[in-house]
Specification:
Chain lengths: 282, 271
């Protein structure tokens, strides 16, 4: 029987990428492809070297590789990424980063601005790096136009770095439960509020992706047009989409709240504030 | 010290808001010495009458807002505070983000002309300069800044600043409900008290930080509370909260929860 599921991934090595070295991606490539053993994989690439590496690993794991050459310069979202990166150069929160260094790892905008955009010094490379994350939805659309698979799974090349680090990490085993984009949770914050969506693995049926595509495109466009200086990637944009239409999203790594949790919660509810203060979370 | 300038077009507070709260604030100052900064004659009339009613020893200092010592710096600072910077997030987090300073300030920014916003900000941003100025001219042992609207949060019990025994070497303050990127601000700016040397020290650091804030063109709205939080990160000894929320009992319970590895369970139980 023909499989109804398509995995989609991509890899471009951007010179000047301050976020990850090429070795980081190569290190995680094999374990990631191992997870989708026997599946169909549409892979976007630019260099022959990358394609050769991916082909070799795919062959080992019996993956039906469907390569698609796409120069980063031809990526449909590159111009929008450049505009967003340019706006992000205005996020000059040096006084806050000096006072609260933890923000650089915890808060999305600080993380992007100080680590990867390098205070606006690295805007050229950052724009290209940004399109790799922010532009994955255009690639999913492209794959829907080219093939007629019913279930579409976006998988970052480095997705395996979360193996055993989050609940239900084996996304291949998670069935699509409803017409929604299925996703993992994120620990990073935006203005102190937890991001709703983590972008490494995202999956849903064709109907969900079609509904999502319009919302994402509108959100992406509005973000740039607003002149917002808060540095965003796909995850903040997904968070905005989630806030607009939560029914379109399904979290797959929720920690189960058992009867015991609920009973204890009921008992402790009058002490909620005091307990949060005690745990330093208030 | 206190002060009041009614800024036409202030999207944050109406004139009536201040006039409604002034009597209770003056009542709390009964029998005290007060220097009051203001510009308009009608405000002077109101505060003179309240001072008589509540036996406050009042000195009025005429200070047009454009002559405020921090007026020019505040205008420079607000040049970088544009409504569009974070509006999309303020709209998206409406409700859950109301305690986040940058998002909260959005509602004052979007309905105000830029020059109005800048003038409103100098009223709160500039209080340390005014206290410092008065502390240099006088020989009192303790100086308090009291917002004209300080009574909006209640002045009784532990929060009655007249009963505070000031911690030496620190600005004594109330807690703040607002946050900066999820971290609670150090101090609420309504009531601030300290010895003259502490005010001088704070003023020096504060002015230097404000200049750095401007030179780095920071797009985050700054107020007195924001700057004090940034200062407290480097100089925690300069601040002392009079209503600490985390007592030794909280700390002991927190330690027990942590040691028993119950943090995650309780978080899930409390949902």
């Amino acid at each position: 029987m023909k499989s109804k599921r398509l995995y989609i991934s991509a890899l471009w090595l951007v010179e000047g990428n301050l976020k990850r070295s090429p070795e980081h991606y190569f290190h995680h490539l094999e374990p990631t492809l191992k997870m989708i053993r026997g599946g169909n994989l549409m892979f976007f690439y630019e260099s022959e070297d990358i394609l050769n590496r991916v082909s070799a690993v795919a062959k080992n794991y019996d993956i039906n590789l469907l390569p698609f050459e796409l120069k980063l310069e031809d990526h449909p979202d590159l111009e929008r990424s450049k505009a967003m990166a340019q706006n992000s150069c205005e996020f000059r929160m040096d006084v806050f980063a000096d006072a609260f260094p933890d923000l650089i790892s915890n808060e999305k905008g600080f993380n992007q601005y100080f680590k990867f955009l390098n205070r606006g010094e690295n805007v050229q490379a950052y724009s290209k790096q940004l399109v790799c994350t922010i532009g994955k939805y255009s690639l999913i659309q492209k794959s829907m136009e080219k093939y007629d698979f019913e279930e579409l799974y976006w998988v970052d090349v480095s997705a395996s770095r979360f193996n055993h680090a989050r609940n239900n990490f084996d996304f291949c085993e998670i069935p699509i439960r409803k017409d929604a984009i299925h996703h993992y949770s994120s620990s990073q914050k935006i203005f102190g509020q937890t991001q709703k969506v983590q972008g490494s693995v995202l999956f849903g049926n064709r109907k969900a992706w079609e509904s999502f595509a319009a919302l994402y495109d509108e959100t992406f466009r509005a973000y740039i047009d607003s002149g917002c200086t808060y540095p965003a990637t796909d995850e903040p944009l997904m968070t905005l989409c989630h806030l607009k239409n939560p029914d379109l999203f399904e979290r797959v790594d929720s920690e189960e709240r058992t009867l015991l949790h609920k009973a204890v919660g009921k008992l402790l509810s009058p002490l909620r504030r005091s307990l949060l203060i005690a745990m330093n979370q208030y | 010290m206190s002060g009041l300038w009614i800024i036409p077009g202030n999207a944050k507070r109406s004139r009536q808001h201040y006039l409604d709260l002034l009597p209770t604030t003056f009542k709390a100052l009964r029998g005290e010495h007060l220097v009051f900064f203001c510009e308009s004659e009608d405000i002077k009339t109101v505060v003179l009458s309240l001072a008589q009613r509540y036996k406050v020893s009042l000195t009025i200092k005429h200070l047009p807002i454009q002559q405020h010592p921090d007026y020019a710096l505040t205008r420079q600072m607000t040049e970088n505070i544009r409504p569009e910077n974070f509006k999309i997030w303020a709209d998206a987090f409406k409700g859950s983000g109301t305690h986040e300073k940058a998002l909260n300030q959005q509602r004052f920014l979007k309905n105000s002309r830029h020059d109005i916003y800048s003038t409103v900000v100098v009223c709160n941003l500039g209080k340390t300069s005014l206290v410092n100025e008065i502390a240099l001219e006088n020989k009192y042992e303790e100086y308090f800044w009291i917002d004209a609207s300080a009574s909006r949060l209640g002045i009784s019990g532990k929060m009655d600043f007249r009963r505070w025994r000031l911690k030496p070497g620190a600005i004594n303050h109330r807690k703040s409900g607002m946050k900066l990127f999820g971290n609670r601000q150090t101090a609420g700016g309504l009531v601030l008290g300290g010895e003259p040397q502490v005010w001088h020290k704070l003023h020096g650091i504060y002015q230097s930080l404000l200049k750095t804030y401007i030179s780095t063109r920071c797009p985050h709205p700054a107020t007195d509370e924001v700057l004090m939080t940034l200062i407290a990160a480097q100089h925690p000894e300069l601040f002392h909260c009079k209503n600490p929320t985390r007592t030794w009992l909280h700390k002991v319970i927190g330690k027990i929860i942590w040691n028993l590895r119950l943090t995650s369970f309780i978080n899930r139980a409390l949902n």
